[in-house]
Write a structure and sequence with these properties.
single chain; about 550 residues; alpha+beta; Cysteine Rich Protein; 4 domains; two-stranded antiparallel sheet
Length: about 550
């Protein structure tokens, strides 16, 4: 009997081989470990994608021809490429206009809105009209002051077509032929505001692997090819029972993978579907509401009968946390407000459903499960620690990439958080020791006594320095070896009899984690341990005062 994997890949054997080639190329393997079969690797995918496969009519990829209106950002990007292609014309146009108007290039921005500088203002507004965003709008957004160009008066009005205005100036600057090429290119961009394309809904493993890899000129943090910081998240989406890869295929370029080609995605998004909701998350490389709505409506047609529910009307105000709170592990979660989606008649509108849509993250080389511990450091790789050469924190077990490993004095690897909790550096001998084998020790400051009695005894320079900034305390982290060597003994702050209501000691008011030296300690040893000059004019008398106060218990009240 065929396994679920065999049933699902039937008819897709060649493209599964392409996936095997792709995962082999981009699995960052540093150690010689056993590469698992593609069937073993895709076992979690087959298990978790079964319900979507059945919803798809036992297919991995569905396609549909759609018509959509290009989003402003897409048009702006296309216009930017057009400007780059006609850089020579744009550069010559403004060079000649600058010369004709006698504009000081270093100052024209400063006078852009000055009525008494018409030439600079005209030049600035022409620059503004020729940026990619305003070329998409295609009309002048401001009235332009009257100027003389090549002996002719020129005055351009707000709302006038941009190409007509630029064309008039170009002809005066003897650039009519070059402008015509520019005008045609501009028109071609705007005339393609409505397009037709092939929309794909896919649960094919290779579409998740190439979710942000393409020949269409864009990328993201999920790119396998460019080592994206969240590329392991695509594996979670591949193995998720909720996530569909939706994309618009390029009709001009393909990706060469293995022995064949694969669609190059010029637009892509994740469609997340359950029996209580459908939502499209952030689009790449631009948002397009027409395409998002097409995805939701298409999925609704299949998911409604499949799950036995009725979905609500599609809207663009779907908000994360409002009835549905979606979580992810290694995948970057960019869900927020203003998504295109819908709910169903099964959604409890008086309750927030919490759902984690990440499938298991597995090593793309050996197939081992990569544990998620709440830290996304491992999201920047496609392999487990054993295959990638990365190590695991000896305390919490998190996977550590190169440059993120802190080696303890015990020779074991730690993440930064665990290392700081476990170890510290002695400020006397600079040795790294266990936190339990050290103590934070402080010398307190009697603020009022220092101001009234100590500062007047200091020389002018020292007095001025301490009057500008009075230290709260002197603090040092000492290991037990240094304290033994210096014959230093300490008392826990919480046991000391300082009454904060009746004294001016600034420490140890909020230092319940610290210790203070016992008064029988020798000052020279205290100074060495705290890194102070034995003859320091401030700290030596402050220590003597502290000892005297403690001896006579002048502020002994108890907390």
């Amino acid at each position: 009997m065929n396994t679920m994997y065999e049933k699902m890949v039937a008819g897709y054997e060649d493209s599964i081989k392409q996936f095997d080639v792709y995962r082999t190329d981009y699995a960052d393997v540093e150690r010689c470990t056993t590469k698992c079969s593609v069937e073993t690797l895709l076992a979690p995918w087959a298990t978790n994608k079964e319900r979507l496969w059945k919803m798809f009519g036992e297919k991995l990829i569905l396609t549909k021809e759609v018509e959509y209106e290009r989003d402003f950002e897409e048009l702006r990007s296309e216009m930017e490429r057009m400007l780059n292609a006609h850089h020579s014309f744009v550069q010559t146009f403004f060079a000649r206009l600058q010369e004709e108007l006698d504009v000081n290039v270093s100052q024209w921005r400063d006078y852009a809105y000055h009525d008494d500088a018409p030439a600079e203002r005209f030049y600035y507004l022409c620059r503004s009209a020729m940026n990619e965003a305003n070329l998409v709008e295609a009309r002048l957004i401001d009235d332009m002051p009257e100027v003389i160009i090549c002996g002719q008066r020129v005055r351009l009005a707000r709302g006038q077509k941009t190409m007509r205005a630029i064309g008039k100036i170009a002809r005066l600057l003897n650039l009519a032929v070059e402008f015509e090429d520019f005008r045609v290119a501009h028109s071609m961009v705007l005339n393609q505001a409505k397009l037709k394309g092939t929309l794909h809904l896919s649960i094919h493993p290779l579409d998740y692997a190439t979710a942000s890899d393409n020949e269409s000129g864009w990328s993201s943090c999920m790119s396998w090819r460019e080592g994206g910081a969240y590329r392991l998240g695509t594996v979670e989406m591949m193995n998720s029972p909720y996530v569909i890869c939706a994309y618009l295929a390029s009709d001009s370029v393909q990706m060469d993978i293995g022995a064949g080609e694969w669609p190059s995605k010029k637009w892509r998004a994740w469609v997340i579907v359950d029996d209580t909701f459908i939502v499209v998350n952030r689009n790449y490389p631009y948002d397009n509401e027409d395409l998002m709505r097409a995805c939701v409506e298409w999925v609704k047609e299949m998911a409604g009968p499949h799950f036995g529910v009725q979905y609500t009307e599609t809207n663009s105000e779907w908000e994360q946390g409002d009835h549905i709170d979606i979580d992810m592990d290694y995948m970057y979660n960019d869900l927020g407000a203003g998504h295109v989606g819908c709910y169903s008649d099964k959604t409890d509108m008086n309750y927030t459903q919490h759902i984690n849509v990440s499938g298991p993250a597995v090593c793309m080389w050996c197939g081992e499960f990569i544990h998620y511990d709440g830290d996304c450091d491992a999201a920047c790789t496609l392999t487990c620690p054993a295959c990638s050469g990365r190590v695991q924190c000896s305390d919490c077990g998190s996977s550590l990439s190169e440059g993120y490993v802190c080696w303890g004095p015990d020779g074991e690897p730690y993440c930064e958080s665990c290392y700081n909790e476990r170890f510290t550096s002695c400020e006397c001998c600079d040795e790294v020791v266990e936190v339990e084998e050290s103590a934070t020790v402080i010398l307190p400051v009697d603020y009022k006594w220092a101001e009234d009695y100590l500062l007047p005894t200091l020389n002018a320079d020292d007095r001025a320095s301490y009057q500008r900034w009075m230290p709260r305390e002197q603090e040092s982290r000492l290991c037990t070896q240094c304290m033994d060597r210096l014959n230093l003994k300490t008392e826990y702050v919480n046991t000391l009899p300082f009454d904060r209501r009746e004294s001016y000691w600034r420490a140890p008011a909020n230092r319940w984690d610290a210790y203070m030296f016992t008064i029988d300690c020798d000052w020279s040893s205290v100074a060495e341990g705290m890194g102070l000059d034995e003859n320091d004019p401030f700290w030596k008398p402050m220590w003597e005062h502290y000892v005297e106060v403690r001896k006579h218990e002048e502020i002994a009240r108890g907390f």
